[in-house]
Design goal:
Layout lengths: L2 H27 L3 E12 L4 H13 L5 E2 L11 E12 L5 E8 L5 E6 L3 E3 L4 E11 L8 E7 L2 E6 L1
Antiparallel strand pairs: 1-3, 2-5, 3-7, 4-6, 4-8, 5-7, 8-9
Length: 160
């Protein structure tokens, strides 16, 4: 092989390596998932009797699939309300944000948290994530929340 062609090959290989390093840096340090909007709706448990009954039954059997913060003290529907939080997110990355899910810190009157299904957000796309909280009627509605997700195998977090 001629010296000039070895130099050219080395330069091309160095260029390709630089491109991969820049792409890797972009993946690790680049744009992430951002929260663009948060909406909450509060309804009495009387309006969601079926969901309330399923939660009470699941907690009673010990196989409730959500997070339980407190015991359910009464089965009167008027004592409880559901707060549904919908979080709009935008993916600012060239990669799919995988397994995006809302997390919420409970307040004093929260009883159970029913998380929505994890969602994948396409590159440069948007999506909505939901979570519902069963709490005592009249509970505070402002709760700290965040969105956990994975981007190219790295766990990320978008806080409100």
């Amino acid at each position: 092989m001629e010296i000039a062609s070895v130099k050219t090959f080395t330069k091309v290989l160095a260029g390709i390596t630089a491109v991969f390093l820049l792409f890797g840096a972009y993946i690790i340090f680049g744009p992430r998932l951002i929260v663009t909007d948060v909406r909450q709706s509060v309804v009495s448990a009387t309006e969601r009797q079926e969901a309330f009954s399923a939660i009470v039954a699941g907690v009673g059997r010990g196989d409730f699939g959500g997070n339980q913060f407190k015991p359910i003290e009464s089965t009167r529907l008027t004592d409880y309300e559901f707060t549904t939080v919908t979080v709009a997110v935008q993916n600012k990355s060239v990669l799919r944000a995988e397994w995006a899910q809302v997390g919420i810190s409970p307040v004093a009157d929260d009883i159970v948290l029913v998380t929505g299904e994890p969602t994948d957000i396409p590159p440069f796309g948007t999506g909505e994530l939901t979570v519902s909280i069963l709490s005592h009627a009249g509970a505070a509605t402002d709760r700290p929340l965040w969105v956990d997700y994975y981007l190219f195998g790295h766990k990320g977090n978008a806080a409100r």
